[in-house]
């Protein structure tokens, strides 16, 4: 962590009102592996803004630049500080070989799937800086006090079919990561995200297995506490309802840690989550891209 980590945390806490864990977000990025860049702005020796970015190798040797975090303290806004931070970050990433820029989206260590539309100033800055909207993503929220998180009956049903559902063991972390890389998710960021969940104690990953073979997995807290995902089930095993059971087990972990709600990050099948745990669409993210 840089010497001004406390000041960076204060800026994030004051700026990112949509995120209760905002003071700790920069620390997640600063502790992550890979080639990363952090830039701060100061006024009279006081940190008033921060930008964090990173490079992501893509197929064919292409390097993609990601602006993972940009925050300006409210009193310092309206003077071009955000634009200068964004421009400086783009320059740094371009100097390191990035040929295109994205806002957010830097899995496996990411904070948001894109730009939360609630941060209106950031959407305006992205447009002024020449970024193009190229998609959107949503997070869903789960009320953990109201959600049906019991799994005992389902686990008995699955056991009768020879399927065991349980928390992953630390000793099998490498086996699970290898299974993910060799399976249908091998080209995605999910294996690396799951490794981050498996490294926690206890592992924040639950699995379903039959005869020693993995069938499904679900993780939470890969980057941010209280955030669920990723989760996947082998296509040939989807008739068993494994996803709903693993989802509820993960959400029960989050509730046991004291949280009242959970975020289902970068949600895919909205209807599944709504039916399984009463999840509701909570946050909308616009995905932005810009040619380098």
CATH superfamily of the largest domain: Gcn5-related N-acetyltransferase (GNAT)
Order of SSEs: HHEEEHEEHEHEHHEEEHEHE
| Strand proportion | 25-35%
Largest sheet: 12 strands, mixed
Please state the second-level CATH architecture of the largest domain.
3-Layer(aba) Sandwich
In DSSP terms (H or I, runs of 4 or more residues), the helix count works out at 9
Shape: globular
**Termini distance?**
29 Å
Q: In the CATH hierarchy, what is the class of the largest domain?
A: Alpha Beta
CATH topology of the largest domain: Aminopeptidase
| Count of separate structural domains | 2
As an assembly, this protein is: single chain
The helicity comes to 25-40%
The overall pLDDT, averaged over residues, is: 95
What structural class results from the helix and strand content?
alpha+beta
